[in-house]
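Anyone up for a design puzzle?
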């Protein structure tokens, strides 16, 4: 609600949070709350853009890769079709910001001012930016230095408010949530290592449904899925997409989560690519196996899902925005082969059963993205785990430390108000359990636990009233930032 309030007030907002904290859900609410004729929803990847009913940031900007000189980029953005939506845009939404290069962000900011002929940051456009910089970084060539958007020269003058969502909703197992929190920050303790290595013994098959293999490289995904489909006996059933504009197939392919051609066989491992019935568990990422095909002419597939539902899968429609704001569409089965999927393609998804080989991890945040796709520790199987693959970029960690430090005063005030029932009787003495509850409400503001502070507060609580606990917390934790 705070993020929504900030957006409605006209402020430019960046909101972040770990995987599963509801960023995508909130972003869809924001998109729905703004006037559609002056709001442009974009994302760094086509699939992410499709999820919010938008287009890629590059398609919106109309300046290609943005590596050309500024004057040339401005000329590209001045083309009639591109200039029109630069001028119309009052609210620009950017999802999956972690994969947007900082140099590209600076170029966009300068282009916006030039095309709109306004000196305000980003030409006066309100920015609503979402993502987690501790997930996948910008894609750069081997000889290029990675520059995150928060390192862009224009970032601070463009973004007025930074907020972090802290409650994980995707996973409910506290042990798994703690494990993922550690991995996200690049920490791999002995306990984390032990838990992940134990998952190698987990079953990779349940009721005929195999765990999806997450791969670091796209080529491995294509080879695995093609090979496993060929190994199945029986006839191949081919489903061709119906696209609104066959001349723009490449653009539709880039933004639609399903391909123009889907090949299936009896026994094929598949994954839903769209929410069909949330109440039954038929959601984006739900895993299943093809158990039959209808006898009618269309021969639509029947899929038994891990949630226990067997469903006849019909054609669904995706609507995406083209570079000039033109709406394009694709009708296709909401299914894709699921023996394997790339870590990049999995970002933003929740998967029932996942098998991961992390031996070829090559980027900071990649191991975290892969592991956090699983809904539970029981549905995760990690092969050849090596603690060395758990990495977080030092610059990103420093950015989040500063972000939390600025949030601290407001968050502490709110958490003290949440703890108010425990403060009603100033003379009441407290035990360890009361203090741990109180501290858990306070510590959510800093994103870390300070053991020294907790020991000091526990001692204070056993013999004094709660005000001493607060003072103890101030002395031991706040003084160190």
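Challenge accepted. My sequence:
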């Amino acid at each position: 609600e705070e993020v929504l309030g900030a957006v409605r007030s006209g402020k430019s907002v960046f909101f972040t949070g770990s995987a599963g904290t509801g960023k995508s859900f909130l972003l869809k609410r924001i998109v729905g709350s703004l006037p559609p004729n002056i709001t442009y929803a974009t994302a760094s990847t086509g699939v992410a853009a499709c999820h919010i009913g938008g287009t890629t940031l590059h398609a919106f900007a109309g300046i290609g890769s943005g590596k050309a000189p500024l004057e040339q980029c401005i000329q590209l953005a001045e083309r009639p079709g591109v200039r029109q939506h630069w001028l119309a845009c009052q609210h620009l939404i950017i999802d999956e910001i972690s994969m947007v290069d900082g140099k590209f962000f600076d170029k966009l900011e300068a282009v916006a001012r030039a095309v709109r002929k306004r000196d305000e940051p980003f030409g006066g456009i309100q920015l609503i930016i979402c993502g987690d910089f501790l997930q996948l970084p910008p894609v750069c060539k081997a000889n290029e230095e990675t520059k995150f958007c928060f390192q862009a020269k224009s970032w601070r003058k463009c973004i007025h408010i930074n907020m972090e969502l802290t409650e994980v909703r995707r996973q409910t197992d506290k042990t798994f949530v703690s494990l993922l929190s550690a991995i996200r920050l690049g920490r791999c303790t002995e306990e984390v290592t032990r838990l992940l290595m134990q998952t190698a013994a987990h079953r990779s098959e349940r009721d005929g449904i195999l765990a999806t293999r997450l791969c670091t490289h796209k080529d491995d995904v294509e080879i695995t899925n093609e090979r496993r489909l060929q190994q199945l006996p029986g006839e191949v059933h081919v489903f061709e997409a119906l696209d609104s504009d066959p001349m723009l197939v490449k653009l539709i392919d880039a933004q639609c989560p399903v391909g123009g051609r889907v090949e299936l066989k009896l026994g094929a491992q598949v994954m839903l690519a769209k929410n069909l019935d949330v109440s039954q568990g038929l959601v984006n990422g739900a895993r299943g196996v093809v158990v039959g095909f209808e006898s009618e002419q269309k021969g639509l597939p029947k899929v038994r899902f891990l949630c226990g539902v067997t469903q006849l899968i019909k054609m669904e429609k995706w609507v995406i925005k083209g570079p000039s704001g033109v709406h394009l569409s694709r009708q296709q089965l909401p299914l894709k082969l699921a023996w394997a999927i790339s870590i990049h393609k999995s970002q933003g998804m929740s998967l029932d059963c996942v098998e991961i080989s992390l031996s070829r991890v090559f980027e900071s945040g990649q191991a975290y993205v892969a592991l956090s796709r699983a809904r539970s520790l029981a549905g995760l199987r990690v092969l050849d785990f090596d603690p060395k693959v758990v990495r977080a970029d030092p610059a990103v960690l420093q950015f989040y430390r500063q972000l939390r430090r600025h949030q601290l005063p407001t968050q502490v005030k709110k958490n003290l108000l949440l703890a108010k029932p425990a403060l009603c009787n100033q003379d009441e003495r407290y035990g360890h359990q009361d203090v741990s509850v109180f501290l858990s409400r306070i510590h959510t503001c800093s994103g870390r636990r300070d053991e020294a502070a907790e020991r000091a507060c526990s001692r204070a609580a056993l013999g004094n009233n709660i005000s001493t606990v607060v003072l103890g917390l101030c002395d031991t934790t706040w003084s160190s930032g």
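A detail worth pointing out: Residues 1-165 form a domain with the Rossmann fold fold (CATH 3.40.50.300).
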